[in-house]
Design goal:
Largest sheet: 2 strands, antiparallel
Number of strands: 2
Oligomer: single chain
Number of helices: 4
Order of helices and strands: HHEEHH
Strand order of the largest sheet: 1-2
Length: about 80
Amino acid sequence: METADKDTLIEELLVEHPEANRFFLDIGLRCLQCGEPYWGSVADFLAENHITGQDADRVIAGLNTFLEDASGREGRVVLRGDGDR
């Protein structure tokens, strides 16, 4: 999967991009319950959380941006000095 869309299954998304869980948590949505992923598509998951239409499109666009940024950081080590905290 290159990008997520409304039809992407949450389970497949989390298998390929476990960091997606952080994105959903950051916007106040839990796609994992007791270690089990939500069973359904991204659109279904968002609709159950009252996010539809253009709002859902914006969330999915944000998710894809988050995943792109996360993949760009993958494998890089960032070192900080004490003054950078």
